[in-house]
Give the backbone structure.
Amino acid sequence: MSLTPAELTSAVSGGIGSSPQRPDGNLKVRGEFAYASDLWHEDMIWGATLRSPHPYARIVSIDLTEALQVPGVYAVLTHQDVPGQNRYGLEHKDQPVLAEEVVRYQGEPVALVGADHPETAQRAMKRIKVEYEVLTPVVDMETAADDTPLHPGGNLVRHVPVRRGDQHAEAEVVVTGRYEVGMQDQAFLGPESGLAVPDEEGGVDLYIATQWLHVDQAQVAAALGLPLEQVRLTLSGVGGAFGGREDLSMQVHACLLALHTGKPTKMVYNREESFYGHVHRHPAVLYYEHGADHTGRLVYVKARIYLDGGAYASSTGAVVANAATLGVGPYDVDNVTVDCWGVYTNNPPCGAMRGFGAVQAGFAYESQMDKLAEALGMDPVDLRIVNAMSEGSVMPTGQVIDSAAPVAQLLKLVKDKPMPPLSTVVDLRDMPGGVSNTTHGEGVVRGVGYAVGIKNICFSEGYDDYSTARVRLQVINGEPAALAHTAAAEVGQGLVTIMQQIVRTELGVERVTILPMDTSIGNGGSTSASRQTYVTGGAVKAACAAVREKLAKLAASRDLSAVDIAGTDLTGVDLAELLGDEVIDETVEWRHRATEPIDPETGQGNAHVQYGFAAHRAVVDVDVELGLVKVVELDCAQDVGKALNPQAVLGQIQGGSAQGLGLAVMEEIQTAGGKVRNPSFTDYLIPTVLDMPPMSIDVLELADPHAPYGVRGVGEPPTISSTPAIVAAIRAATGLALTRVPVRPEHITGT
Amino acid sequence: MDFLRPDTLAEALALKAQRPDAVPIAGGTDVMVELNFDHRRPAALLDLTRIAELRSWDADGDNGDTVRIGACVPYTRIIEELGERLPGLAMASRTVGSPQIRNRGTVGGNLGAASPAGDTHPVLLAADATVEAASTRGTRLIPATDFYLGVKRNALEPDELITAVHVPATRAPQQFSKVGTRNAMVIAVCSFAVALHPAQNRVGAAVGSAAPTPRRASAAEEFLSAELTSTNQWESPKPLLDSVKRRFGDLVAEAASPIDDVRGSAAYRKHALSVLARRTLGWAWQDYSGKVA
Ligand SMILES: Cc1cc2nc3c(=O)[nH]c(=O)nc-3n(C[C@H](O)[C@H](O)[C@H](O)COP(=O)(O)OP(=O)(O)OC[C@H]3O[C@@H](n4cnc5c(N)ncnc54)[C@H](O)[C@@H]3O)c2cc1C
């Protein structure tokens, strides 16, 4: 097979607003799509990673002698073999490519083996002798800041305070709560994988499944001590990401082995290693106090939020800012006191995952809203509507919401949906416990819960967030054909489909080819923060506009200027005739409007580009005696600004809701003393088809005037409100407080 | 690693006698996971999938009252072909993994692995099944009660293979129930099986995933058997008193000696077992009462 993924051309038509078939769809359904783990190169060797068994230890010595003697071994490398800077990281360069004196988490890479076969590599790895002096790990996020410093400068990664209004406001009704969120995993199905191919001049080509080629490139080049142009990355088939591929995994490792041995080097993690090979969602402890008047109007919200960043910073800083700035939810609150701390511990490193800080806060503030409604004797949806923010509302950061914020409308939509009937016949598949035959109706109580959430879209706090797109137009076989090229990672979300749709709409050509994503073109930015349709979509649209300008000039030179090329309608134009032998090839960088850093003392500032909102209603059946839950319905209403691809929008809402369901009732990486207890899909459970109910979804399209086509990022908001809606429904069924997610059977039965 | 592929049982037994270290592989749904994770590195694999004798079932015993299921009959076939005669085993089979796993996985493999969490074990115990083991030395029948020796340890000798499991056919109600933290494709947090044996005025009951081995809940069995017999309920069943169901549930929970682990707490397992025991007994008894009436 070729290392470079196929160009994706599809014969189907369809511009924006329609749902054409994905160009990679057939390949994926047939099992023919080449994922990164399928990469192959003649004469390649296999890399393996020796990882620390301890959450915190000093490395006393490393003895490679025996490992090097294993026949078939080409190289065994340690930190001493890292030619460049042995430090990387998305926000802080605090993470070694290979550990030096200490290891700070279980699974931290210590040494690499390159061998002729994965088995050989494994065997050699077992012969590396590392002597550790085991240290007492720091594992409690609430006290970590004052505990043994794990990094120079101590264990506080970032503290974000947000202060708005009266800091001493008082209220008639006050509710307080302490909430906990367990460590969720992205659980993408395609494990980390890549192939590094050395060139003749000391450089390297890396084929890799990632979310952001250029940030990988910069980190890899720095670690290898090479100029950027000698480190070229091409996106390989990505089997899901959800934030877990923003940080490096084996990118540098594979390149080190390839450059050291002069041989193409493949690395692929197995499922267990994958759990150690990427960051997870920050576990959180959240303390909230809500004060309201007797009508339910919020007077103040106070929150103290702790996020466990684990051993290395990753994107903890940005996650902290999100939890803090979005910490009161989509509500109008005049008086806000929020403090959010992200800390280092010896737990697994945590970073980006769908919802990014807004998920943890969302569980807590929505639990508080239910508690407040109960204290007031109010309907929980009415209470939310009383306080719902809207266009023109002011965030706790002082930022004015300057496009649609239909929070009340979303809540009404889910509230007004018909209720599912109580089932009259016993079908085990509809029961809590499913076909495991635990109840035929005994102990089953129905509950209904609601939640709404808010998420920032795109990168925030003054980050220069842009994407680069190249569009080329020419006549091929007598037909106008377009080609689009970006470095924006398709990770399964369907960006390639959207790019084709945009080009079809803007240029009026049917045939659109998407080139493989790589670093030969400028930065596409990260596939995260629900931003690619907005930013790379915006860049492709802008590149098409540049092409149209060229077309207009061409028309003028050919004296066809009567045709209005600059307008939106190209249908009357014979592009093939106009173009002739000309090739128009335009590359543009496109930026969304700028944001600002927030004030470090008050958290004030226009930190975010855009806000997304979704609301859920969950209907659950709980077997209150066994503590088992069946989510009967999980309905959602979300504003997406403009549905460029309505089917993809529904897919995102269903997937995001399912991931929220997972966090509500089953998904957690359990740790003890810093060690992961369940690094497998046997014990890290994700929802199956019998756990995830069909959804009724209302999609609003209230265009954002600042965004291309009016789009509003869609991928993350449903992940936020799904979890608290389900937990609210379980509370309604059981009468229990349930302050921790995932809710385990033990929490319901009290055993 | 050698891959041994016998075509007949005799060949397989000869190979196993020569190579007692060879690991049998049937559906491979346990073995392949262990190999992939490098938890096991056997010198040889003994593939049983070509042996026709192991892939069939038949009704044996004096009047066809026992079903002999070849070790390599997959769960899917047990569900489809034996649901009437072996209701408990079919129910347990239905809860194993996913359709893919049920297409490949076998009772022989479940017994070979002897995991305390294996779903068929409580049913085999409650239903008085026997395991047929063979070697070049001969064939023996091991009562399920004597088969499970410890965590993932069973009573097979190194040269033996499981050739079949014998399960008494029945028209009497049996139930199987398992708790897991998702609604499909989940390993048991705890499980329970109950089988009524009206011909012997007796009840079988067993727990899974709640002790180092699957085990019978003997005190619960004895209590309920005595209770039903002394009140003449086998002949004229009446609705069971709640106190009887509760006592049965409590005794089942007492039979367990579970641990705290990632899947659940020991206290939860005991609690859940008592609930499962109460409920499954209720269903089985209601069913029985309907049949007798
Ligand atoms: C995704 C997944 C889900 C699962 N879910 C469940 C579940 O819900 N419930 C459950 O109980 N199990 C489950 N399992 C485990 C497994 O499917 C069962 O234990 C199954 O019964 C094993 O049967 P097999 O034929 O695949 O066994 P194999 O993997 O072929 O063998 C299992 C063991 O038995 C030995 N063995 C096999 N046949 C014989 C024989 N004839 N004589 C002697 N030894 C033999 C093997 O050497 C090995 O040690 C699951 C496994 C997977 C991968």
Summary: Residues 175 and 280 of chain B are 6 Å apart (CA to CA). DSSP finds eleven helices and 14 strands in chain B. Chain B touches chain A through 35 residues (CB under 8 Å). Residues B 23-31, 33, 48, 71, 96-97, 101, 104-106, 108-110, 112-113, 118-119, 161-162, 187 surround flavin-adenine dinucleotide (CB under 6 Å).
